[in-house]
Every structure is written in structure tokens, then in C-alpha cells.
Amino acid sequence: MCLIVFGYDCHPGYQLVLGANRDEYRNRPTDQARFWPDAPHILAGRDLRAGGTWLGVSSEGKIAAITNYRDPHLQVNDPPSRGALIANFLANRTLSTKEFQSILSHDGHLYDGFNLLYGTSDELHYFTNRGGSSGPVTPGIHGLSNHLLDTRWPKLTVARSRLETILRQNCVDPEQLFAALSDSAPFADGVLPDTGIGPERERLLSPIFIANEDYGTRSTTILIIDRSGNVNFIERSFDRSPVPSATQRYSFRIQPLTR
Q: Is the pTM of this model over 0.85?
């Protein structure tokens, strides 16, 4: 997952409105979003190479989403899959956000760089293993790309501004969110970050929606949770253009786990 924008506890009708683009190599095998057969309470896509996911929600209302932290000069030798962090958090139905935070603090250095949103729509947290300010997410409109939370990269700034406009409406239309995240126009070289990958690669990765032949936006996911606990989850998969090749839709009401 390489771009996430979300409004958290800042709309009268919705507790969470989130839109995310997953950027990945085209040849990496992926299962489209569904409730997992081996863990039926988890709704997420699945990385078929490592078994984890990039964004998911559980029937009890747990949420997690991850982006990579781009730093080619700081790589871990033979790291575990970052997508497993989400899968493990969602799979363990009794694992609290506080307990998970302890695990992240203890084991986060084992992984290549990442940013992680986790918790519930009522208690959302952020963690990075690259030295940022981890902790509870404050109410408002936020964004994550391949640096720390709310770093003002051009595509994040534009996508977050579009979400802010959408959230001024009484009712959020998922189609507007999809449109906001489908822009494949690159940004000017002069405003791009320098993350150590060279100007050509920075330019390739600069659009909100990446439509490159070998690496690009594989899916867009919209997650909306209203203040009554109703979940609307829509994921569109893409080949090499902003025209979707498949759409998955799920709606359900959160059923908190009884301990």
C-alpha cells in the first residue's frame, strides 16, 4: 500500500472514511478482497507470495493498513513480510491495541521500513519503525505515503485536499473517493521528494495512481464506517490503467467480540 488518505472522527455521520491505493509489481500474485476461508472474520485482499495483506478489517471492527517507508539506504537483511503484521493483528481476535503496540515496539526493527495504521474506528493508532512519532491518531484528515504520517509529498497533499472537499458533504459517495484516487498525472520534478532512488524513479512513483507497465496501482480500497458501526468496503482491482478489471463490495455491521 503506497497511498492512504483518511478522515478520522471528523464527520457527523462517519467515524472513519478511508481511501487507499496499493502499488505493487504486476507479477506479484494477489487474491482479491474477500473474507478469508481460514479466518472468516477477516475481510482483506491477500498477498499470495507471503500470505499477508496491505489493508483489512475484521467483523469485530479491528482495522489495519500499511505502507512501505522508502529508504533504499536502510534495508534489513532477509526481513519478514510486513503484510504479516496486519494479518496477525486481525487474526488474533483478543489482541488489544496496547498489546499490539508492545509487539511493534519490540519487533519493529526486524522489518524493512513501514508505516502502520491499526486499531478500531474508535481507537486508531499509528506506528512507524523509522523514527517518527508513533501513537494515537488525532481526529482530522490525514494521509500516509512512503514517509511519515502527514508528510507533505505532492500526491498526498492533493489526495488529502480532495478528501477534505468530499467530507464537507453530508453523505459520502464512494465514487467520489475512487475518482479522487484515480489521477495518473505525474507531478513536476521540482516538487518531488528526494528519497535516494533517482529522479526518473521519483517521477514514475509520483502520481496518485501509478499506471506503469511493470509496477503500479493494483487496487483501490474504500473503507467507510458510520457512527452506528455499519461498514462499507469496496475494492477495485486494476491491470495497467485506471479502468477497473474487478470490483468487490461488502457491507456488514460491526459485531464486537464478547469476552
A: yes
Identify the burial level of 34 via C-beta atoms within 10 angstroms of its C-beta, where 0-12 means exposed, 13-18 middle and 19 or more buried: middle
Residues 93-132 pLDDT 10s: 999 999 999 999 999 999 999 999 999 999 999 999 998 7
SS3 162: helix
Spatial distance between the Cα atoms of 86 and 226, rounded to a whole number of angstroms: 22
Q: Which CATH number fits domain 3-253: 3.10.310.30, 3.60.15.10, 3.30.70.270, 3.60.60.10?
A: 3.60.60.10
Contacts of 9 (CB under 8 A, 6+ apart): 15, 16, 139, 140
Q: Are 219 and 235 in contact (CB under 8 A)?
A: yes
Question: CA–CA separation, 176 vs 49, rounded Å?
Answer: 32
Q: Collect all residues with Cβ–Cβ distance below 8 Å to 179 and sequence separation of at least 6.
A: none
CA torsion angle for 44, 125, 166, 150 (degrees, to 10)? Answer: -110
Judged by DSSP in three states, 175 sits in: helix
